[in-house]
Amino acid sequence: MSSRTIFLSRLIGLYCILVALSMMTRKQAIVETVTALLQNPSMMLILGVITLAAGLAMVLAHNIWSGGALVVVVTLVGWITLIKSLFFLFLPPELEAGFFLRQLHYQELFYVYGAISLVLGIYLTYGGFKSRSS
Q1: How far is 62 from 39, CA to CA, in rounded Å?
Q2: What Å distances lie between residue 45 and 62, 91, 106, 108, CA to CA?
Q3: How many CB atoms lie within 10 A of CB 72?
Q4: In 3D, which of 28, 18, 39, 43 has the Cα closest to residue 107?
Q5: Can you tell me the distance from the alpha carbon of 55 to that of 79, in angstroms, rounded to the nearest whole number?
């Protein structure tokens, strides 16, 4: 496995674990912050630009669709990040807020989203630290 895959799986995995744990311990603060963020066009632009940089970096550095599940999951996370950034940059804030808060039922399914992040983080972290560079 490439050292780039190992690095990104460790980075993304640890990030997902820490964000999930923060989500699960501070639900009300996270929901209020995300709601306020989605309703602030200036902050959505800044978030979109930062997320675009992260998504482009991951896609340009790791666009590998074969070589095992860990490799493909890292690539998928990069593409999802890139696509999400484009939503942040090009959709009107009202549409974004409606989609993330109402269509995806963010508040009602909050712990489900946190659990998905935690499981993804554990998988990537374990796979990244277990693997050896080739």
Answers
A1: 32
A2: 25, 10, 21, 26
A3: 14
A4: 28
A5: 7
Residue 16, C-beta contacts closer than 8 angstroms, at least 6 positions apart: 117, 118, 120, 121, 124
* Four-residue CA torsion sign, 53, 57, 63, 68: negative
Helices first, then strands: H and E counts in the chain? 6, 0
d(CA 124, CA 13): 5
Query: 67-71, 87-91, 115-119: lowest mean pLDDT where?
Result: 87-91
pTM, full prediction: 0.89
Q: Which amino acid is located at 67 in the chain? A: G
